[in-house]
Design brief:
alpha/beta, D-Maltodextrin-Binding Protein, domain 2, Rossmann fold, 3 domains, six-stranded mixed sheet, 20 strands
Length: 598
C-alpha cells in the first residue's frame, strides 16, 4: 500500500529485515492440551518442562514428536516437552518486546520459526532497542527445510509444459499480463490467470515469492540493488504479477482450504491458477490434508485435481526451520533442548517429517516428496540469497506502490451484546472492536477505497444496517471512518444474514475491477432477525460462479457467543476466510490478520 501511513508500517516491519521472510498468521493454534485446555504431561515428580513455540505449518508433527519424546530422563530429570503454535512474526515481535505472558501465553524456552531470517530480524530488533539476553546462538541448527514452489492445478501446469519445461516467474508474468489469458494455451474456459500470494510484509511464502519476482524481473540471481528496483521495466514486471492476485492473506491455508472446497464441487480450475506455497504444503494438499496437521490426515480424500510444483527456474528461496534456544532457559532446560533437537534430527523423526512433505535438515528429499504428490524431488533448485537489509527494505517499499489496491467495506455489529464488559480490560466488546478497527485504518493506503456500515436490527426502517461512510478513497475517507467508528454505541439485536447479503450486493454494485473487492463483517452473536433470510438462502445468494467479478466476504467471530461455524460457511461461500476472535482481547491482532488480505 502506497501512502505515508502504509510506509510507516512497512518501515517498522522491515527496517531490520535481512533474510527469509515473515509469517504473521496471527491466529494461534493449540498447545499440548486436552479438550478442556489442560496441558497433558507424563512426568509427576522430579520433572522439568521444556516449552517450545513452533511455526504453524509444522506444529502438528512437532507436537506429536514432543509427546513421544516426553517422559524420558535427561540430566536426572523426567522431561515433558510442551508445544504451542505461534506464527513466526508474532513470536518475533513478542520476543522483541520481552514476551508478556498475559498477552503472548507461557514464555517458551525454545523457538522454532519457519526461517532463520526471523532470528536475524530479532537480533537486530534487540540491538536497536539496546536489549540483549534472548538468544543463545547466532546460527541455530535447522530441523527441516522446504523450498518455495509455485503450486498450480496439474492441468494448468501441464498446459505450460510441466514437468519437462523449466518454468518461472517470467512465464507467469507473461501469462498474467496477456489479455488472452489461458486462451493463449488453448483453454479459454479457464479465463484470466489468477495468482494467490500471501502478504510479503507478514508471510514467509509471500515475501519469498516477492523477492523471487524481483530477481526474475532483473534477470539475475544475485546482487539485487536499490537502483535496479527503481527501473521502469522491473516495476512493470512486478506490477503485472501483482495485478493477477486474487487476494493477499496472512496464511496460505486460506488459499489451500478454499481450493479444496472448490475441488469438492468440481470447480478447482475456477478459483486460482497458482499459489505460492512451501513444498510441504503442496504435498499435504495432494494428500487431502491442506492444513498439514498429521491428526487430520486421511479425513478427506485426495483432490480430484491435484497441484503440481513449479520450482521457479529464475530462482526460489528455502525455509530452514531453525531450532533456537532462548537465553533465559536454565542449564537443565538447555540440556533438554539439546537432547530434543538431537531427537528431531534423528532418523525416525526425520522420516516422519519426510512423510509430511518436508525435506531433511540438510535438504534431502524423501518420503512423500514425490512426483505422485506433485513434487519433483530430483529437481535442481536455483536457490536465491535474500538481498541485503537496505535493499529488502526498498524492495518492500517498492512492492507497496505496485501491489493490487483494495476496495473494502467494513461492517461492524452494534447489537446490545457488544456493550458487554470484557473481563480484565475495563472496556466493553465494542470498545475493543472500535479500537482495533481504528488502528487497522493505518494499514490502508490513501489509494485504497474503504467504507463503513454498522448493523443491528431495524436501524433504518426495516433494514438492519446503516451506511456510515460510503466506500471511497482513503484520501478523503480516513478521518470520517475514524470519527464514525469512534462514535459507535450498542443498540438492539443482530441482523446478520440480511446485512451480509446487502453488504455483498452493495460492493458488487460498486465493484472495482482492478482491485481486491471484499467485505469484512464483525459480529459477536447469532442472527436474530426472524423475519429475514435464513442461512441456506443467504449462502445460495452469496455464491457466484463468476470468479473474475467476485466479492469476498471475510468474517470475524468476536467473543464466545458468536457462531463461528456459521460464519465459516458464509466466508467460504465467497472463497474468503473466517477469523476466530473468541477471546475479545485478541481482536486487535485478528484485525491485523484480516486486513493482510488486502
Amino acid at each position: 500500500m502506497a501512502s505515508s501511513n502504509r510506509g510507516k508500517i512497512i518501515s517498522f516491519v522491515v527496517a531490520a529485515a535481512v533474510a527469509l521472510g515473515l509469517i504473521l498468521g496471527l491466529r494461534a493454534i493449540t498447545s499440548s492440551s486436552d479438550e478442556d485446555g489442560a496441558e497433558q504431561v507424563k512426568c509427576t515428580e522430579n520433572a522439568v518442562q521444556l516449552r517450545v513455540a513452533s511455526s504453524p505449518e509444522k506444529v502438528g508433527l512437532v507436537e506429536q514428536l514432543a509427546k513421544d519424546y516426553s517422559g524420558r530422563t535427561v540430566a536426572g530429570k523426567c522431561v515433558d516437552v510442551l508445544v504451542k503454535s505461534k506464527s513466526s512474526g508474532a513470536a518475533m515481535q513478542a520476543l522483541a518486546k520481552g514476551w508478556d505472558e498475559s498477552v503472548d501465553g507461557p514464555r517458551p524456552d525454545v523457538w522454532t520459526p519457519a526461517a532463520s531470517g526471523w532470528v536475524t530480524l530479532l537480533q537486530q530488533r534487540l540491538t536497536a532497542s539496546d536489549k540483549s539476553g534472548v538468544l543463545t546462538a547466532d546460527k541455530p541448527a535447522s530441523i527441516v527445510t522446504a523450498p518455495l514452489v509455485i503450486a498450480m492445478p496439474k492441468p494448468m501446469a501441464e498446459a505450460l509444459g510441466w514437468p519437462d519445461k523449466p518454468l518461472g516467474w517470467r512465464d507467469l508474468a507473461a501469462l498474467a499480463t496477456d489479455p488472452a489469458g489461458w486462451a493463449k494455451y488453448g483453454h479459454p474456459e479457464w479465463g484470466a490467470f489468477r495468482l494467490g500470494k500471501t502478504n510479503p510484509n507478514l508471510s514467509t511464502s509471500g515475501l519469498n515469492a516477492t523477492i523471487g519476482a524481483y530477481f526474475a524481473a532483473t534477470g539475475t540471481s544475485s546482487d539485487l540493488t536499490e537502483a535496479v528496483l527503481a527501473k521502469p521495466e522491473v516495476q512493470s514486471f512486478v506490477r503485472g504479477v501483482e495485478q493477477s492476485i486474487v487476494h493477499y492473506g496472512d496464511t496460505t491455508l486460506t488459499f489451500l482450504s478454499n481450493l479444496q472446497r472448490a475441488d469438492d464441487r468440481g470447480a478447482a480450475l475456477s478459483y486460482i491458477s497458482a499459489v505460492a506455497v512451501e513444498e510441504n504444503s503442496l504435498v499435504a494438499y495432494n494428500q487431502g490434508n491442506p492444513t498439514g496437521n498429521p491428526t487430520t490426515l486421511g479425513q478427506h480424500g485426495k483432490p480430484k485435481v491435484p497441484l503440481a510444483a513449479i520450482y521457479p527456474s529464475d530462482g526460489t528461496l528455502v525455509s530452514d526451520h531453525p531450532f533456537t534456544v532462548l537465553a533465559w532457559a536454565d542449564e537443565v532446560k538447555k540440556q533438554v533442548a539439546a537432547d530434543f533437537l538431537g531427537y528431531l534430527r534423528g532418523a525416525e523423526a526425520q522420516k516422519r517429517f519426510a512423510d509430511q512433505g518436508f525435506r531433511s535438515f540438510d535438504g534431502k528429499a524423501s518420503g512423500q516428496v514425490t512426483k505422485d504428490n506433485g513434487a519433483l524431488p530430483e529437481v535442481t533448485l536455483n536457490a536465491l540469497t535474500p538481498p541485503a537489509p537496505p535493499v529488502l527494505d526498498k524492495l518492500l517499499t517498492s512492492w507497496a506502490q505496485l501491489r493490487k489496491p483494495a476496495n473494502v467495506l467494513l461492517v461492524v455489529d452494534v447489537s446490545g451484546s457488544m456493550g458487554g464488559a470484557v473481563e480484565g480490560t475495563g472496556k466493553t466488546r465494542l470498545d475493543l472492536a472500535k479500537q482495533a478497527a481504528i488502528s487497522s485504518l493505518g494499514q490502508f493506503a490513501d489509494t485504497d477505497k474503504v467504507g463503513l456500515w454498522m448493523f443491528s436490527t431495524k436501524l433504518n426502517g426495516q433494514e438492519d444496517y446503516l451506511q456510515l461512510v460510503p466506500v471511497g478513497p482513503m484520501t478523503t475517507n480516513r478521518e470520517p471512518l475514524r470519527s464514525r467508528l469512534d462514535g459507535l454505541v450498542p443498540t438492539a439485536g443482530t441482523g446478520l444474514y440480511d446485512t451480509s447479503l446487502a453488504a455483498h450486493e452493495y460492493l458488487k454494485r460498486n465493484l472495482d475491477p482492478n482491485a481486491i473487492n471484499a467485505v469484512v463483517v464483525l459480529t459477536d452473536g447469532k442472527n436474530e432477525d426472524a423475519g429475514g433470510l435464513d442461512i441456506d438462502n443467504l449462502l445460495a445468494k452469496l455464491q457466484s460462479e463468476d470468479a473474475t467479478a467476485s466479492v469476498r466476504l471475510f468474517t470475524i467471530a468476536y467473543g464466545g457467543d458468536a457462531d463461528l461455524s456459521v460464519l465459516k460457511r458464509i466466508a467460504e461461500s465467497t472463497n474468503a476466510a473466517a477469523y476466530d476472535s473468541s477471546k475479545p482481547d485478541t481482536i486487535d491482532q485478528v484485525f491485523t490478520a484480516v486486513i493482510s488480505n488486502f
